[in-house]
Amino acid sequence: MRSEHRLPKLYYCETLNPRKACAAARFLQADVDFVRVDLASGEQRSAEFLALNPNGKVPVLQDDAGTLWEANAIMCRLSDAVAADFWPHDHRQIDVLRWLSWDASHFTLHGATLWFEILIKPLFGGKPDNAVIEDAKTSFRHHGRVLDDHLAANSVAVGKTLTVADFALAAALPYAAAAEIPLAEFRHIQKWYGRLEELDAWQNPFPA
């Protein structure tokens, strides 16, 4: 008897890191089964979900190769699964890794802090910490200048086409206005991000 083919499952919710994984799946036209995890009800802390990711966080990808957590790694596996160049396997790969590391430690770190303090905390009755907000804005401006200078001479993060680095760098930017992320101060970042915004996969990453 032939075994039934099962689609890879991409566990997500409508937050920053799952957003880029879902956007990558749509951009790559990867055939996945989107599975929403209800964070508000604590579904991520269930024994069943913790068996998939002991960190209790989304996104998680479950496919024939096993179970994988961390959004950047998931984007890379999805690219490999469809034999795309989104996660390059040539001389560009080291540079992509550089930007992924820098982004996680600096650029999106500060953007995500503003997103959390200004948009998420109040949803759960918390009060935004003004000192944290001002520090995140200062840090975002400092590292934003680094990226803006890079994009003054480059249309994308690495090479000539979009890679996982672009989606990672852009993770917090859909919420820039609402989260008071000072994106408007960086002309070249705005121009680069505007091109991402033209992608339906980026505009509408989540299932309806």
TrEMBL record:
<dbReference type="InterPro" id="IPR010987">
    <property type="entry name" value="Glutathione-S-Trfase_C-like"/>
</dbReference>
<dbReference type="InterPro" id="IPR036282">
    <property type="entry name" value="Glutathione-S-Trfase_C_sf"/>
</dbReference>
<dbReference type="Pfam" id="PF13410">
    <property type="entry name" value="GST_C_2"/>
</dbReference>
<dbReference type="InterPro" id="IPR036249">
    <property type="entry name" value="Thioredoxin-like_sf"/>
</dbReference>
<dbReference type="InterPro" id="IPR040079">
    <property type="entry name" value="Glutathione_S-Trfase"/>
</dbReference>
<protein>
    <submittedName>
        <fullName>Glutathione S-transferase family protein</fullName>
    </submittedName>
</protein>
<feature type="domain" description="GST N-terminal">
    <location>
        <begin position="5"/>
        <end position="86"/>
    </location>
</feature>
<dbReference type="Pfam" id="PF02798">
    <property type="entry name" value="GST_N"/>
</dbReference>
<dbReference type="InterPro" id="IPR004045">
    <property type="entry name" value="Glutathione_S-Trfase_N"/>
</dbReference>
<feature type="domain" description="GST C-terminal">
    <location>
        <begin position="89"/>
        <end position="208"/>
    </location>
</feature>
